[in-house]
Amino acid sequence: MYKLMMAVSVLALVTACSEQPQPEQKAAPAVQEATDSLSMYKTQAEALLANIRVEKEDKALEAQSAELVNLSRTLLNEFVAKYPQCQTYLDALDKAADIIPTLPLEEIESGYHADGKLPKFDDPVCYHAKDLLVHPATVQAIAMNGFKGPEDYKSAEMEIVEVIAHFDQVERALK
Question: What is the superkingdom listed in this entry's lineage (predicted)?
Answer without folding.
Answer: Bacteria
